[in-house]
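Entry 14. Ran structure prediction on the chain below.
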Amino acid sequence: MTKPRLIHDVSLRILAGVRDRLGDAWDALDGADRERIILCAVDAAELQLKALSLPQGSEEQLKLLREKAQIHAQLANLTAAGAVRVAAVFWDAVRGVVNGAVAIAFAAL
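Output, structure tokens:
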């Protein structure tokens, strides 16, 4: 699987997790907020794939934390009143996708 395809697949899983967790609140978001969440899902997928390949304690991890903070700031800028909830739901969905990917990788060993 190519890296762009992997990023696409992971971002779709993140987005599906966000939509599932938000339920009807997803439909209440305006188009600009939904688009921002979609773009953040792509950024988070790239971030998580980078994070999985880095050694512990590397200087690159600090860079990834700054990237995560930028994604979180984008989520915090949502115009919806529930922006805080969206950010929490978003990162919960990311954790779910990453934990599932790690479990699959370990099962393959």
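Residues 83-108 form the longest helix (26 residues). Will compare against last week's run tomorrow.
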